[in-house]
Amino acid sequence: MLGSSSTTVKNLPLKRRLCFLLKLVCFVSSVLIFCEFLIYYVVIFQCRWPDVKGGVHMSEKETSASVLKAIILADTHLLGEIKGHWLDKLRREWQMERSFQTALWLLQPDIVFILGDVFDEGKWSSPQAWADDVRRFGKMFKHSVFTELVVVAGNHDIGFHYEMTTYKVNRFEKLFNFTSGKLITRKGINFVLVNSVAMEGDGCAVCRTSEAKLVALSHKLNCSRPKANHSNKRCSDVEKLPASEPILLQHYPLYRKSDAECTGEDSAPPEEKNIPFKEKYDVLSQEASQKLLWWFQPRLILSGHTHSACEVLHAGKIPEISVPSFSWRNRNNPSFIMGSITPTDFSLQKCFLPFESRIFTIYCAAGALLVILVLAHVQLLTPPFYFAQRLISKHKAV
Length: 398
Fold this sequence. Notes:
By secondary structure, the chain is α/β, with parallel strands linked by helices. The protein has one domain: 4-Layer Sandwich (Purple Acid Phosphatase, chain A, domain 2), CATH 3.60.21. 42% of the residues lie in helices and 14% in strands. The protein has helices at residues 2-44, 86-107, 127-140, 155-158, 166-176, 205-223, 233-236, 270-273, 286-296, 356-377, 384-397, and strands at 68-73, 111-114, 148-151, 182-186, 189-193, 247-249, 300-303, 310-314, 318-322, 335-341, 346-352. The strands form two sheets. The chain has a six-stranded mixed beta sheet with strand order 4-5-6-7-9-8, with helices on one face. It has a five-stranded mixed beta sheet with strand order 3-2-1-10-11, with no helix packed on it. The longest helix is centred in the first third of the chain and has 43 residues, at 2-44. The radius of gyration is 28 Å and the shape is elongated. 33% of the residues are buried. One of its GO terms (molecular function) is phosphoric diester hydrolase activity. It is found in: Endoplasmic reticulum-Golgi intermediate compartment membrane.
């Protein structure tokens, strides 16, 4: 009888240690699950599809069923084998995958546009490295048959103009079914895909082909406009397209001097805003920009490349939205655009992803609390109550 009691007393400390260890494991697991999984649901759940503005531009036929729900993101920059550290890859790709999959599940978009620089090293990657990057992209951005994915070429995908080759362009086009000057029409809405890297204007083979397709498409679209003179011989044999004014999707922004006029919490940092943009590198040239505006007379332009947000008006009436980077490697506060679009109108809303600094703050606070709990458990850190009690007992003894 005494032996069993003695064994029970000896086992008490062991049970307490195991119980404490189990509590620590539960605490650490809860923090990890929240910061690496649940936080994306908490943040993206707060995003709402914008309502399309009514009024004279909204016809009775344009009901909620005819509104196209589009997600627009840019500059994912999947790291490659040359510059990408394995830990950096693991962290950034997990973040983007969870954000994208959570957004698809919660928001149920009809279509997703990625505005270039999908890969970071596509401009110089070998066939084997390219295949590995493509495999990882397919895992991260997998989607159901009910959501369409459209990708535009960026300079990191096919190289800057001086690095661009027919091989790289064909490799990208084959993967994403992308062609500069390609028209995508969904629910009567016209989207024009532009290879902005090929808008150099120097007559290179890729540039000539790209511009020829853009000119031919602009002719079709202009002949399909409601105010077009269809009796004109130039439009008599042209295939008529939906009359909706097009939306341009491209990687480079149209020409602007700098980001000095850009505002918002995800615009360029103050020290970078006044740095002049270099034509054909940071933005399209003035000549190429005027060509696109003249050819298509778009109602909206969506671009990426700068990694920061900006909204500008061209010719005083045509808005361009520069979409910030989707990767935490480029920003502390990545985001994507949610667009509700009809053939005659559109409304855009930004959806911010979790701030990385806030996630680190949660981890630091949890780590500090964990240290306090461990020290208190091993009695290296005396709880305030017991500390006060000891002081009182010592005072009485004196």
